[in-house]
């Protein structure tokens, strides 16, 4: 029988938050063990680091230029012909998603046989005056009815007083741990193991909303970090040193100087949510052993994007810095089905679009021509293979709209609305503290990166480039209109 496929995705987890990468605080024992049974890809990036565009790349295998989502915009229909679950269905798989999808309409199956959904708090679904009955939150969330059956009919996602995008305010989960959304994803996933079709291999997408805010870990996990010696966020010499408008006092800020005690508690809660997820992943791995499927399952763990968490006085995502754009990425094979070089670290530059072709390759399924990503199996096996030498990323972000290119050694950033540029030597400055744009020793590299980005953006409908030079101030879009792989 073909191998089972388990895709574990989390939301807003930084690529450095693994204890196997010697993070100074975070403890992730189960993810560390997954890495020992597979390969850790250390230079994994999210080309468009926010939820919707990143998850589009995850499910379609397309680059942002192909799937068209180059910023964050709700209520744009998902009408892609080929998705990871739809291709696996054609290959004979029983497919199931538990947790976050963040598609539109919310009940769009995107090729899955079934979806048990919790996207978290989405504003466009909760604002009742803007929705029809069929689009309202009550019709597109499965966690909240489950919670109300167990904890009371008046329970809601707002009970803790935390906003779903608040990156600086934290408090412990107020109900028993078993009722937390993280536990719910695993509880429902274990139930899928019970009721799946045993005649077919399965594809399970186990998709967590955390460590995305609200920062609400169970008390036991917050206790692990609240008194820990947590390092201060890294602040580049180029970062804004002042916050005259006091943006840092806004609980849903994207930049600013946050009161120190509030920031340290947010850091502690963020790390606590990661360890909570890790323990629940351990719970699911034990259940897989009980059901006799662990040794016949390929497991891929990743996040859709990161969290700046105060780096350079910045928060949340969408920006091209390592805390936002770099993600954890583990490909594990407990049963040694794929003959990978286990317990190794790979430094090739990869992107979320590589998930679909990798898992289809593992399943022995055909990879559609629409897929831009590459299978990681040759790299995981240590084979000599011609690989991409860099990736291009971008995100619409008003005056901070940006493009970046990186080969894992250097990173070039261009802010399209202002023309501001940054160049970092990641091999010497992995935390991006020093902008080398004026350093004459990097003049040749800078010109090369400018040329490569200009070529990458040639013929884009925004008019960013003529293929040779970059044009500042062209209107940045959230969704491209001229797309060959979509019907609208």
UniProtKB/TrEMBL annotation:
EC class (word): hydrolase
GO CC aspect terms: cytoplasm
Q: Name one GO molecular function term.
A: metal ion binding
Read off the Pfam families from this record.
Sulfatase (PF00884)
Keywords in alphabetical order, please. Answer: Hydrolase, Metal-binding
Indicate the segments forming the Sulfatase N-terminal domain, all copies.
Answer: 3-365
EC identifiers of the protein: 3.1.6.1
Query: Mind telling me which residue stretches traverse the membrane in this protein?
Result: none
Q: What family is this?
A: Belongs to the sulfatase family.
The entry's protein name is Arylsulfatase
């Amino acid at each position: 029988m073909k191998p089972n496929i388990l895709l574990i995705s989390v939301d807003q987890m930084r690529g450095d938050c693994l204890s196997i990468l010697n993070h100074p605080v975070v403890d992730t024992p189960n993810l560390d063990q997954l890495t020992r049974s597979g390969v850790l890809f250390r230079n994994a990036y999210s080309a468009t680091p926010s939820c919707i565009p990143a998850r589009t790349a995850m499910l379609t295998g397309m680059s942002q230029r192909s799937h068209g989502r180059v910023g964050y915009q709700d209520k744009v229909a998902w009408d892609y012909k080929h998705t990871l679950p739809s291709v696996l269905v054609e290959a004979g798989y029983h497919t199931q998603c538990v947790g976050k999808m963040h598609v539109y309409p919310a009940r769009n199956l995107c090729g899955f046989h079934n979806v048990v959904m919790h996207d978290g708090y989405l504003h466009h679904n909760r604002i009742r005056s803007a929705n029809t009955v069929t689009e309202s939150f009550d019709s597109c969330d499965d966690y909240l009815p489950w919670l109300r059956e167990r904890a009371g009919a008046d329970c809601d996602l707002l009970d803790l007083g935390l906003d779903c995008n608040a990156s600086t305010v934290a408090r412990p989960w107020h109900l028993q741990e078993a009722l937390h959304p993280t536990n719910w994803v695993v509880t429902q996933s274990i139930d899928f193991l019970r009721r799946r079709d045993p005649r077919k291999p399965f594809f399970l997408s186990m998709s967590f909303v955390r460590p995305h805010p609200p920062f609400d870990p169970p008390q036991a996990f917050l206790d692990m970090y609240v008194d820990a010696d947590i390092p201060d966020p890294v602040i580049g010499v180029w970062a804004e040193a002042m916050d005259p408008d006091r943006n840092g006092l806004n609980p849903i800020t994207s930049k600013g100087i946050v009161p120190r005690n509030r920031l340290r508690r947010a850091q502690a809660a963020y790390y606590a949510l990661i360890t909570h997820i890790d323990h629940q992943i351990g719970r699911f791995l034990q259940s897989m052993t009980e059901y006799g499927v662990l040794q016949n399952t390929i497991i891929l763990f990743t996040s859709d994007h990161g969290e700046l968490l105060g780096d350079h006085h910045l928060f949340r995502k969408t920006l091209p810095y390592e805390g936002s754009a770099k993600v954890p990425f583990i490909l594990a094979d407990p049963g040694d089905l794929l003959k990978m070089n286990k317990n190794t670290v790979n430094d090739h530059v990869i992107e979320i679009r590589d998930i679909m072709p990798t898992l289809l390759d593992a399943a022995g399924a055909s990879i559609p021509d629409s897929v831009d990503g590459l299978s990681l199996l040759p790299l995981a096996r240590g084979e000599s293979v011609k690989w991409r030498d860099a990736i291009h990323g971008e995100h619409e972000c008003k005056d901070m709209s940006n493009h970046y290119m990186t080969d894992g050694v250097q990173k070039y950033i261009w802010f399209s609305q202002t023309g501001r540029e940054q160049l970092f030597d990641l091999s010497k400055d992995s935390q991006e503290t020093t902008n080398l744009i004026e350093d004459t020793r990097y003049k040749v590299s800078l010109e090369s990166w400018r040329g490569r980005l200009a070529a990458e953006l040639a013929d884009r409908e925004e008019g960013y480039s003529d293929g040779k030079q970059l044009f500042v101030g062209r209107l940045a879009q959230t969704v491209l209109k001229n797309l060959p792989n979509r019907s609208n």
